[in-house]
Write a structure and sequence with these properties.
About 35% of the residues lie in helices and about 20% in strands. The protein has about 375 residues and is an alpha/beta fold. It has two domains: about 10-270, Carbamate kinase (3-Layer(aba) Sandwich); about 275-365, PUA domain (Archaeosine Trna-guanine Transglycosylase, Chain: A, domain 4, Roll). The site of glutamic acid (GLU) has 16 residues, from helix 3, strand 4 and helix 6.
């Protein structure tokens, strides 16, 4: 991925609280107007961009007059998030709208992206929004999150969103221009431009502190995000958002290079999962899969095993296993769809169908 990341087809941009909200709690409209123009430019060039936007708690705390930036207690943080989120969504809708873009809000929890059933739902919604040319604006659903709201959750959230969206790049914009070999406040600190492998030495460089005190997760959560993203086959860059047009201005950054997409995806699908069933497909479907397509019910001749939606299944062609992937339907619904064309699915099932039995984003060829 070059920087700024123009080359990746699908990009997730995470924006930290300190860039969205100024120290006295007001929205940084000028800066946001610039990034909305950047996103519009990218979209016109054919790039799909989703935004992970922090700032709800910081913004809500000011509106409610809460102490400690709204983080004195979990109730305060959740009330601040609920109040700030509606304002934040309004700002994004307005500024993207002024550029001729449609914004869509998605509030998710990290759990939503870790449980495979819910993961598939979030992934399908995200992909559909991006295909429709809409800009998803995503934040953690802080007002109902059951765990403490941690600084830096949105770094990891952005990486999970990238995994779910099959994105090729993640850009974390905050008030720091990348990773340093020690605390950047130390004058001897050296900037690291590129990381090919995240090992103990890289983790030791990260510092848990938050420079702005407003929501920046510090480097620890950014490295955690880089681990998730690179393992899912996406590059991740950390750069400073302290420039006016961060998506179109070359700037110093740290690039964490993706592991090879195919092997990363295979490792994720294989990781601790045993296949719960086998979908036997005809030669035509087998060829379509090797061409990189999703598995449609029309090409499936037999379903074996009892799997639930989100379970791992093996896909076998006439001459043996060819792929593994996450089932979009449970075994009984899959059985009803075998050999049937997509247009008939809604009538057979009685509910809005998924486009495939196994989507190519959640499949690894063997
Ligand atoms: N979701 C939080 C907010 O909108 C920010 C979490 C973080 O600091 O990463 O305020």
């Amino acid at each position: 991925m070059l920087f700024p990341p123009a080359s990746v087809p699908r990009l997730i941009v995470k924006i930290g609280s300190a860039l969205l909200v100024d120290p006295d709690g007001g929205v940084r409209r000028d800066w946001l107007t610039g990034i909305a123009a950047d996103i519009a430019e990218r979209t016109r060039a054919g790039q799909q961009v989703a935004v992970v936007s922090s700032g709800a708690i910081a913004l809500g705390a000011r509106r409610l007059g809460l102490a400690k930036g709204g983080r004195a207690s979990l109730e305060d943080a959740q009330a601040a998030a609920a109040t700030g989120q509606i304002a934040l969504a309004g700002v994004w809708a307005e500024l993207l709208g002024a550029e001729g873009l449609t914004a869509a809000q998605m509030l998710v929890t990290l759990d939503d992206l870790e449980d495979r059933r819910r993961y598939l739902n979030a992934a399908a919604t995200l992909s559909r929004l991006l295909q429709l040319g809409v800009v998803p604006v995503i934040n953690e659903n802080d007002s109902v999150a059951t765990a403490e709201i941690r600084f830096g959750d949105n770094d990891r959230l952005a990486a999970r969103v990238a995994q779910a969206a099959g994105a090729h790049g993640v850009l974390l914009l905050s008030d720091i221009d990348g990773l340093y070999d020690r605390n950047p406040a130390d004058p001897a600190a050296v900037h690291i431009p590129r990381v090919d492998r995240i090992d103990g030495a890289i983790e030791a460089m990260a510092d848990g502190g938050s420079a702005s005190g407003m929501g920046s997760g510090g480097m620890v959560s950014k490295i955690a995000a880089a681990r998730i993203a690179t393992a899912a086959g996406a590059h991740l860059a950390i750069a400073s958002g302290r420039v006016d047009r961060p998506l179109s201005t070359p700037a110093r950054h740290t690039m964490f290079v993706a592991e090879r997409a195919a092997s990363a995806r295979k490792a994720w699908l294989a990781g601790g999962l045993t296949a719960k069933g086998v979908l036997h497909v005809d030669a035509g479907a087998a060829k379509a899969l090797t061409d990189g397509r999703s598995l449609l019910a029309a090409g499936v001749v037999r379903a074996e095993g009892s799997f639930a939606r989100g379970d791992l299944v093996t896909i076998a062609g006439p001459s043996g296993p060819i792929a593994r992937g996450l089932a979009e339907y449970d075994a009984s619904d899959a059985a009803r769809l075998l050999g049937r064309r997509s247009e008939d699915h809604a009538a057979i099932l009685g509910y809005a169908p998924r486009s495939a039995l196994v989507h190519r984003n959640h499949m690894a060829l063997l």
